[in-house]
Amino acid sequence: MSSGASMNAMQHLMEQLKLEANMEKIKVFQAAAELQEYCMQNVCRDALLVGIPARSNRFQKPRFCALS
Questions:
Q1: Largest Cα–Cα distance in the chain?
Q2: Which of 3, 15, 24, 57 has the fewest CB atoms within 10 Å, i.e. is most exposed?
Q3: Spatial distance between the Cα atoms of 22 and 38, rounded to a whole number of angstroms
């Protein structure tokens, strides 16, 4: 790697580290509580829990009636 490319990589790394250092940090238990609250508020719209209505399931194979 050339010194110019190495310098650019280091500058990019420094910018990234500065961005991450300035991010708001919260405690793990607070993040977990917020995630749990969000999940409980949106449980009625969770397709994994309530399923997908047959009429709006675009991945369901269409059913055809073939007469022989």
A1: 75
A2: 24
A3: 25
Angle at 43 between CA 41 and CA 49, to 5 degrees: 170
- Closest by CA position to 38, among listed 64, 30, 54: 30
Residue 4 is classified by DSSP as: H
Look at residue 68 and tell me whether its pLDDT is greater than 80: no
Amino acid at 29: F
Domain coordinates in residue numbering, the chain: 24-49
* Interacting residues of 44 by C-beta distance below 8 A, sequence separation 6+: 50
Contact assessment for residue 41 and residue 33, using Cβ atoms and an 8 Å cutoff: no
